[in-house]
Amino acid sequence: MADGIDRCSKTPAGWPVDETGCPADSDKDGVPDGIDTCASTLAGAKVDERGCSSDSDGDQVLDGLDRCAATPQGYRVDGYGCPVDSDHDGVNDALDQCADSRPQAIVDANGCPVKAPALFEPGVDKIRLEGVTFEKNKIEIPADSEPVLMTTAASLKDWPDLCVEIGVHTDRAGSAATNRELSQRRAEYVKNYLVSMGIDESRLKAKGTGKRRIRGSLLRGPSS
Question: What domain range is 96 assigned to?
Answer without folding.
Answer: 84-114
